[in-house]
Each structure stands twice: as structure tokens, then as C-alpha cells.
Amino acid sequence: MVVLANTLSAVAMVLRTVLDLYFWVVIVACVLTWVNPDPYNPIVRTIRALTEPVFIKIRHWLPFTYTSGLDFSPIVVLLVIKLVENIIVQSLLQYAAVM
């Protein structure tokens, strides 16, 4: 039982770390839209490759996130990340603590 609890705790910690990293990638992607960097820079291409598929899905599911030239899909992604972090990760950690 202890091994399962430690495994759940480890999975929750890894999931939290991945979500935190993606949170910051989305923030950097937003900042990059403000400064208009070189589109051929490998860092810019990597960040866009990581974020644009998610943004496109959000824009497709919620078309009102792109209105009047403003794109609110990164805000929706950030809210979903925090929601998943607060619900799923916390639930996994609490379940592991109870075991």
C-alpha cells in the first residue's frame, strides 16, 4: 500500500511540474506576440510548436475567444492548467496521503 501511495504522490508531483512548465511556456508565447521576434529562431519556433496546436483547439471549441483582434485563448489555457492543477493534482496528493 505504501508503494502505491508513493507512486501516486510521484505521479502528482510530475504532473504538477509538467503543468507548471507549460504554464510558463504559454506566458512566454504571449510575451513573444508583443515583441514580434524572428520567426526563424529555433526557440521561437519551439514555443510556437508547443502552444499553437492548443490555442487553435481552444479557438475552434470557443470561437468567442478571438474577438476584435484580441486572442483570449492563452487565458483560457492558463485557467484550464490551474484548474487541472487544483483539482486533479490535489486530489491525487490527498488520496496518496490517505493511503
Instruction: Categorize the overall geometry.
Output: elongated
* Head-to-tail CA distance between termini: 7 Å
Question: What is the string of SSEs from the N terminus onward?
Answer: HHEEH
Residue share in helices? Answer: over 70%
Biggest β-sheet description: 2 strands, antiparallel
Q: Report the average pLDDT across residues.
A: 93
Q: What's the number of structural domains?
A: 1
Return the structural class.
Answer: mainly alpha
* Number of E-type strands: 2
Describe this protein's structure.
The chain is mainly alpha-helical. The protein has one domain. The protein has helices at residues 2-35, 42-61, 73-98, and strands spanning 66-67, 70-71. Strands 1-2 form a two-stranded antiparallel ribbon. A hairpin with a 2-residue loop joins strand 1 (66-67) and strand 2. Helix 1 runs antiparallel to helix 3. The longest helix is centred in the N-terminal third of the chain and has 34 residues, at 2-35.
Short description:
The protein is mainly alpha-helical and 99 residues long. 81% of the residues lie in helices and 4% in strands. The protein has one domain (2-98).
Attribute tags:
elongated; 99 residues; single chain; mainly alpha; two-stranded antiparallel ribbon; 3 helices
Task: Break the fold down into its secondary structure elements and pairings.
Blueprint: H1 2-35, H2 42-61, E1 66-67, E2 70-71, H3 73-98
Antiparallel strand pairs: 1-2
Helix pairs in contact: 1-2, 1-3, 2-3
